[in-house]
Amino acid sequence: MTIERIESVTYGVEDVELCTRFMTDVGLEPVDAGRSGATFRTPVNQFVRILRADDASLPPRSSAGSNVREVAWGVGTQAALDALAAELGRDREVSVDAGGVVRTRDESGYGVALRLSDKVEAADPPRRTNQLGHVERRNEGVTPYGRARPLRIVHAAWDVLDAGHEQAQRFYLDRLRFRAIDTVRPMGTFMQCEGDIEHHNLLLCHRTNALGINHIAFEVHDIDEVVEGGNYMIAQGWKESRRLGRHNLGSNVFRMFQSPAGGRIEFASDMDRMDKDFVPRHWEKTPQHHLWMLKIPGDSEPH
Ligand SMILES: [Fe+2]
Q: Labelling 115: which of 37, 127, 231, 244 has CA 20 to 30 A away?
C-alpha cells in the first residue's frame, strides 16, 4: 500500500489573521496560531497550515496572491515512501528534510510532499436516522450541529493549464500510483490514491485553464452538517460560492465557500466509495454537474 490520504495542506497567504479566522469558522481545531502563521488539525490527525505568503519555507508560488503551496500525501510504510522518493528522483529535484518528509513539485509546479501517514481513527458514529421500516432513533429528537466540525480533509482539487493537462495527470497516475476513477475529457480527472476507496482524493481540472487551487474539501457527517456549517459561515460574513447540491460524479453533497486563503473550501458528505471492483469511467462530454441543487425563487439557473 502506498499513498493513503492527504496528510496536510499548506497555504501561503496575504492575511494570516483573516485566514486563521476563516479556518476556525470552517470548524477546524486550531493547535497553534500567531502573527506569522497558524496550524489546524482534523480529528484524524491531518493538518491545515497557514503561513505568510513570503515565508521562506514555502515552495514557490504558482500564481499571485494567497493560495495552496503544498499538498502532503500520507504514505503507509517507510519502504513505500523510499520507493516513491527514488522514483521521483529519476527526473526531478527531490529533497528530504530531517523529519523524513520528501518534497518535490508536480508538472504544474505545485508543491508535493510525501510523508509517513500518521493516522488517528476517529471514533465518531453517524447520527441515527429514521425511515419507514428502518428506525434507528427512538424516544429522542435531533440535536442541531450549529456549525461544521469537519471529520477530515477528503480531497484537493487543483486547476491546471489546458496545455499539458494530460502530462499533469500522468504524473499522479504513473508516478504516484493514483487511479483515475472518472476521466472527463473536456474537464479533468478524478483520481483516487492507492490506499483509499474514496471516489476522488484529487481532482486535476483543466476546464478553467488556470493555475492554482480550485478547492479543498472537508468531509462532515451528513447533509445537516453541510447545511448548518454553511449557514454558520454565512452568519460569520463569508461568501458562499456554490450553493447546496449533490454532485453527479462522486455523489457528494456539497456546499462551497470562497476562501481568503485561496480558491474555495467545500463541505462534503456521503461521497461514493469505489473499490477494485469498480470499472473506471471515461467521458467524452462533461456529464451533468449535479444530481440536484437548491433552487431559489426567481432563480431559474442554479449558479
Ligand atoms: Fe470537491
A: 37
Partner residues linked to 29 by β-bridges: 41
Domain 3-120+148-293 falls under CATH 1.20.950.20: no
Which pLDDT does position 165 carry in this prediction?
Answer: 97
Residue spans of the domains in the chain: they are 3-120+148-293
| The pLDDT of residue 302 is above 60 | no
Strands of the 102-105 sheet, one edge to the other: 29-33, 37-41, 47-52, 3-13, 67-75, 111-116, 102-105, 95-96
pLDDT tens across 119-145, in order? Answer: 998 878 889 999 999 999 999 999 999
Ligand 1 centre and the CA of 32: distance in Å?
Answer: 27
Q: How far is CA 203 from CA 19, 189, 223, 234, 259, in A?
A: 23, 6, 22, 26, 18
90 CA distance to ligand 1 centroid (A)?
32
Task: Identify the band that residue 303 occupies on the pLDDT scale cut at 50, 70 and 90.
Answer: very low
